[in-house]
Design brief:
Elements (H helix, E strand, L loop, with lengths): L1 H23 L1 H22 L19 H20 L1 H22 L11 H18 L2
Helix pairs in contact: 1-2, 1-3, 2-3, 3-4, 4-5
Length: 140
């Protein structure tokens, strides 16, 4: 249920970000989105002390794990551009196909220290149906 809510929130977030991008520019909107998010996290972690982790452990983290921050900038920019160009439903559909396809690969290989989940023909069929659904959604 939480993943479903996150998906719904992503569609709303992408729409809000795209609208912001139309008013101030795509890169500028990407910057503002990250600035607002950073401010919210500063409040959450340092003011309200809701964090449960240990920022002191940052020095022990493999460097490649910091790439998520760079990817976040690229993702938000790409979502803004896609929604502005092809609409929320079509962009979200393409995003989901890209996410699931990549997630299947990450699961199968157990990348980034995550638990392995084997690829199966059933998953391949699901991915094929998802891709077919995306093609239908993207048709005009």
């Amino acid at each position: 249920m939480l993943a479903f809510i996150a998906g719904a929130a992503m569609a709303v977030q992408g729409s809000l970000n795209a609208a912001l991008g139309k008013l101030i520019g795509l890169l500028e909107a990407t910057f503002v989105v990250h600035l607002v998010g950073t401010g919210a996290l500063v409040l959450t972690i340092f003011v309200f002390r809701l964090g449960q982790g240990d920022l002191g452990s940052l020095v022990k983290v493999p460097v490649y794990l910091y790439l998520g921050g760079l990817l976040s900038v690229a993702i938000i920019y790409a979502v803004l551009s896609s929604i502005a160009g092809i609409g929320v439903a079509s962009a979200t559909t393409a995003i989901i196909v890209g996410q699931v396809g990549t997630a299947l690969l990450i699961d199968h290989l157990g990348l980034f220290g995550l638990e392995r989940h084997s690829f199966s023909w059933l998953k391949a069929a699901g991915m094929a149906l998802l891709a077919l659904g995306a093609k239908l959604m993207l048709m005009k």
